[in-house]
Each structure stands twice: as structure tokens, then as C-alpha cells.
């Protein structure tokens, strides 16, 4: 395996995340948010309700993996923020996606147009 193909431990862990967990990381790439704000963003994306029982265990798992940090805003509200490893996980997924869909020049042009 070449150096470029070597998957580090944290990167390998990040590549095993669910799509739901990746979506949480993408949301937090914009700015730190509290749980209900993350929930609203996910509901807008999915077009359906996201249960607390799905959201908070996933947030806790991402904290445990070191991909997000959790801090207390007040006694009832926690804020979540992307760590450097979390940001690297988002960028790894974006890069992998772009590398694999931009194989034809027309598709590459479509991607470039989105990014402009």
C-alpha cells in the first residue's frame, strides 16, 4: 500500500461511521451547535422527524471517538463542536466522494460548478 493509500487509525475509524453520523459532522463543520439545533438541521435534510433516541446516542459516540467535543452551555443545554479529527473526517469523505464521481470530464465540470 502506498503512503497515500495508508489509512491511519483515526481516519479508518471515521470511514466506518454511518451516513447519519457523517451528516452530524457536516452540520457541525459550519459552526458549533446545541443538540436541538443539530436535530432541526437533520430534520430539514431528511424531511422527517429525528428522534432524540437516535440523535443523542450518536452524538455521544462521536464524542467518544474524539470527532466532536461536548461542552455545557447551561445546566440543560450542551454544545457540540467539531474537533480537528472530526474536520479531517469530513474532508476525507468529501475528497473520496469527489475522486470517485469526477471520473468523466462532464461530471467534473458539474462538480466544479457546484464548488464555485
Automatic annotation (TrEMBL):
Domain (Transcription regulator PadR N-terminal) ranges: 24-89
The keyword DNA repair belongs to this UniProt entry's keyword annotation: no
Molecular function via GO: DNA binding
Domain of life: Archaea
Keyword Transcription regulation: no
InterPro entries membership: Tscrpt_reg_PadR_N, WH-like_DNA-bd_sf, WH_DNA-bd_sf
Pfam families: PadR
Keyword set, alphabetical order: DNA-binding
Listed name of the protein: DNA-binding transcriptional regulator, PadR family
Species assigned in the record: Haloarchaeobius iranensis
Amino acid at each position: 500500500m502506498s503512503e497515500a493509500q495508508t489509512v491511519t487509525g483515526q481516519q479508518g475509524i471515521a470511514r466506518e461511521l454511518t451516513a447519519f453520523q457523517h451528516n452530524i459532522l457536516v452540520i457541525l463543520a459550519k459552526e458549533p451547535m446545541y443538540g436541538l439545533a443539530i436535530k432541526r438541521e437533520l430534520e430539514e435534510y431528511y424531511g422527517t422527524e429525528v428522534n432524540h433516541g437516535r440523535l443523542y446516542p450518536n452524538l455521544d459516540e462521536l464524542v467518544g471517538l474524539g470527532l466532536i467535543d461536548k461542552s455545557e452551555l447551561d445546566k440543560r443545554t450542551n454544545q457540540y463542536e467539531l474537533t480537528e479529527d472530526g474536520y479531517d473526517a469530513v474532508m476525507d469523505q468529501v475528497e473520496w466522494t469527489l475522486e470517485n464521481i469526477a471520473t468523466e470530464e462532464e461530471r467534473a465540470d458539474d462538480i466544479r460548478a457546484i464548488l464555485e
